[in-house]
Specification:
By secondary structure, this protein is mainly beta. Among the domains are: 22-120, Sandwich (Immunoglobulin-like), CATH 2.60.40; 124-215, Immunoglobulin-like (Sandwich), CATH 2.60.40.2550. The protein contains two helices and 17 strands. The protein has helices spanning 2-19, 255-276, and strands at residues 23-26, 30-32, 37-43, 50-58, 62-71, 79-83, 91-99, 114-120, 126-128, 133-135, 141-146, 154-160, 163-171, 174-175, 182-187, 194-202, 205-215. Strand 4 and strand 5 form a beta hairpin. The protein is elongated and about 180 Å long.
Length: 277
């Protein structure tokens, strides 16, 4: 009888671990806002098993921020999970792996499916004093100060529409006498209009990101003066012409008529001369 009980207990010990699976979530305790939250997951669940990685903002109530599906692969290698934190305010957050199946009781008791993460927001430590919208001819001027930066320097990395164009590179800061802020100024040459982001880091790590917009100079179209064609109209003064009096048109005489008239005149002259004698 004792042997039967021992065998039963032994089988229970064997069956127990086989029927349950482990899921182990690992995340950093804190991360700077704007940087990716990098977590890892190890599991011996069967390939194809899907979980949801959910990020909650923890306050009085949990507010869901991000959710992404995670599927176990056949090689069961450690899975790297990256969650975006851009724009998230500082505070405490909860990262949780949620099983999408109906038999969550198959998790082993030592599984770790939930962690608390603190997001640190230092973006307010950077003050920009140069215009955030600049003309292409003058861009890109990055001027401002970092809280308590003194003379420690600051690291810049600039990204534009075509990728990284500057840095990461440390530049000098000068201590502000009244509050020990680290004043910085840097000119980065850009060749095109668009949106640019500047990542700031100091000796303690990432601080924050600031955005700039570069616009192309406004070209005003040169007005071409329109020349009105001047049409010169020559006004001709009409000189009044006297209307000729009507003339009697004489019909031309035929040569026979003229010769007859001359002959008659000659005969009359002869006759007149004889009478006079």
């Amino acid at each position: 009888m004792k042997k039967i009980i021992l065998i039963a207990l032994f089988l229970m010990c064997i069956v127990g671990p086989v029927s349950a699976y482990g899921l182990y979530l690992t995340c950093p305790e804190e991360v700077q806002s704007g940087l990716p939250l990098k977590c890892t997951v190890d599991s011996d669940f069967p390939a194809g098993t899907t979980f949801n990685l959910v990020l909650y903002q923890s306050s009085y109530t949990a507010t869901q921020i991000r959710k992404q599906p995670i599927t176990i692969q056949s090689d069961h290698k450690t899975m790297n999970l990256i969650t975006d934190t851009v724009g998230l305010p500082g505070g405490q957050y909860k990262v949780e792996m949620q099983y999408t199946g109906t038999d969550e009781e198959r998790l082993r008791s030592d599984s770790r499916t939930m962690l608390l993460v603190t997001i640190i927001d230092r973006s307010g430590e950077i003050e920009i004093t140069s215009p955030v919208t600049q003309d292409l001819d003058e861009a890109l001027r990055i001027e401002g100060n970092i809280k308590d930066g003194g003379n420690k320097g600051i690291e810049l990395e600039v990204h534009g529409p075509d990728g990284r164009i500057f840095g990461p590179q440390w530049i000098q800061t000068k201590a502000e006498v009244r509050n020990n802020a680290g004043v910085f100024t840097q000119k980065v040459s850009v060749t095109g209009a668009g949106d640019y982001t500047v990542d700031f880091s100091d000796s303690e790590g990432y601080v924050g990101t600031k955005s700039f917009t570069v616009v192309a100079p406004t070209t005003q179209a040169t007005a071409i003066p329109t020349t009105k064609a001047v049409v010169k109209t020559t006004r001709t003064t009409a000189t009044p012409t006297a209307t000729p009096w009507p003339t009697t048109e004489q019909s031309p005489l035929s040569p026979l008529t003229v010769m007859g008239s001359l002959a008659v005149a000659g005969m009359l002259m002869v006759l007149t001369g004889r009478r006079a004698q």
